[in-house]
Every structure is written in structure tokens, then in C-alpha cells.
Design goal:
Layout lengths: L1 E6 L17 H10 L18 E5 L1 H12 L3 E8 L8 E7 L6 E7 L4 E4 L5 E3 H7 L4 H7 L9 E5 L6
Parallel strand pairs: 1-3
Antiparallel strand pairs: 2-8, 3-4, 5-6, 5-8, 6-7
Helix pairs in contact: 3-4
């Protein structure tokens, strides 16, 4: 069976204003997948307790991969780097298979603060996207400052939530 790797960052990247600080993404994904309710008793230190999706460039690639997972032809291996990115081992934390609630939606930015979901034309704000991505709005904007927002992006959902 095919395995597609999805790396999540343990720390903010060097291009981010909070470079080196913990993102808490691993715990936030765990909260999204395994905690009932709103995770009010969660031990996380941040204002956002869950990460129900990740946003990536190259929608077409991720749509194909997620489709293969949903058909039972592949799995997504969610991993993080054990040390320096690209110069250390990858540690697998979760696998998403056909029985998971994985999904993908195409995201197109309308303005710097609003985006549209292509399959249902719902308009979402950057604040909504940031919160569901496990980031504050300031961290979200800083994270995506180098992305080409004129190109479609993929929202890869870890849960059954869809916009």
C-alpha cells in the first residue's frame, strides 16, 4: 500500500517571528482526533486547543492523494522531524486511512482576509482558518506570508469537519 507523508512542525520555522517556539501541533491534532467536546481541560498553553486541518500548497497533488486514501489504496502518515528538518529522522505520530475522516477542500483566497471553498462556494475568514489550523491569526498570517495566495491551496481535514 502507498504511504504519503505529511510533516507537521513541532516548532515555528526559522522564517516565522516565533522561530524555534513550540507550535503544539502534535498535541493539538491529538485533541482534534481523540478529545470529546471542546478540550476545556486540555494541558495546552495556547489559545487554540485543536488543529482539525492543515493547509498546504498544491491542491491537485493533495486531492489525488486523499482520494487514494479514501478508496483504501493509500494511507497518510503524519510525522514530525525528530531534530533539524531534513537532517533528522521522521517520527510517525498518526496514520490516516480509509476509515478515518480525512478529507480535502480547495481553498482560493479572495482577499488577504477572506477565502472561498471551491466545492461549495462557502466564504471563510482568515480568523476561522487560523483557529481551525491551530494558530492565532497573527501566527497564521506570519506562517503564510511567503506563500503564493493566488494559487489554489489544499485544506487537509483530520476530522469530519468541512467548511
Amino acid at each position: 500500500m502507498k504511504t504519503y507523508v505529511l510533516i507537521v512542525s513541532k516548532c515555528f520555522p526559522k522564517t516565522h517571528k516565533r522561530a524555534g517556539e513550540s507550535t503544539e501541533f502534535i498535541d493539538k491534532i491529538a485533541c482534534s482526533l481523540y478529545c470529546p467536546g471542546d478540550c476545556a481541560g486540555c494541558h495546552l498553553n495556547s489559545e487554540t486547543f485543536k488543529k482539525i486541518h492543515t493547509i498546504r500548497a498544491n491542491y491537485e497533488l493533495w486531492a489525488k492523494r486523499v482520494s487514494e486514501v479514501q478508496k483504501g489504496e493509500a494511507i497518510i502518515s503524519i510525522r514530525y522531524w525528530s531534530g533539524k528538518p531534513y537532517n533528522s529522522m521522521q517520527i510517525e505520530i498518526y496514520q490516516l486511512d480509509k476509515d478515518s475522516e480525512i478529507g480535502v477542500q480547495e481553498l482560493r483566497w479572495l482577499t488577504s482576509c477572506t477565502a472561498q471553498i471551491r466545492d461549495n462556494y462557502n466564504v471563510v475568514t482568515d480568523v476561522q482558518l487560523a483557529s481551525n489550523d491551530g494558530l492565532s491569526i497573527n501566527d497564521f498570517k506570519d506562517w503564510f506570508k511567503t506563500y503564493d495566495l493566488s494559487k489554489p491551496m489544499a485544506i487537509i481535514h483530520f476530522t469530519n469537519f468541512r467548511y
